[in-house]
């Protein structure tokens, strides 16, 4: 299935199928990021998922290691009523131009789950 995303400053959000993409021009890429690199990362991360899963939100995180690229994903099956199967995934790329990624964390989100993110953001 085709998925559309809006990407702004290191974050990507899945657009619902019936919502057209925004008409405004995309923001300028950060100087440290090659053009199209975020799209490449999204494509590689989608290959980690099951066919019925979709990325609802992808956020690029700061990494303690200078070259490593990290993302936090919110993933949920595309079928209606699947909110109970939402999970947070941590995905790592060894460096900016890496052609493969690894899954570093899987955290299922239950109705009583509380998530606290610590840091500057």
Written overview of the protein:
With 121 residues, the chain is mainly β. 8% of the residues lie in helices and 35% in strands. The chain is built from 1 helix and 6 strands; from the N terminus they run E-E-H-E-E-E-E. The chain has one helix at residues 37-46; strands spanning 4-8, 11-15, 53-61, 69-77, 87-93, 102-108. Strand 5 and strand 6 (102-108) form a beta hairpin.
Care to give the gist of this entry?
With 121 residues, this protein is mainly beta. This is SSH3 phosphatase.
Number of helices: 1
Q: Output the helix-strand order.
A: EEHEEEE
Structural class: mainly beta
Approximate shape: globular
Question: Kindly state the mean pLDDT as a whole number?
Answer: 76
List keywords for this structure.
121 residues; mainly beta; SSH3 phosphatase; 6 strands; actin binding; 8% helix; six-stranded antiparallel sheet; phosphatase activity
What's the topology here?
Elements: E1 4-8, E2 11-15, H1 37-46, E3 53-61, E4 69-77, E5 87-93, E6 102-108
Antiparallel strand pairs: 1-2, 2-3, 3-4, 4-5, 5-6
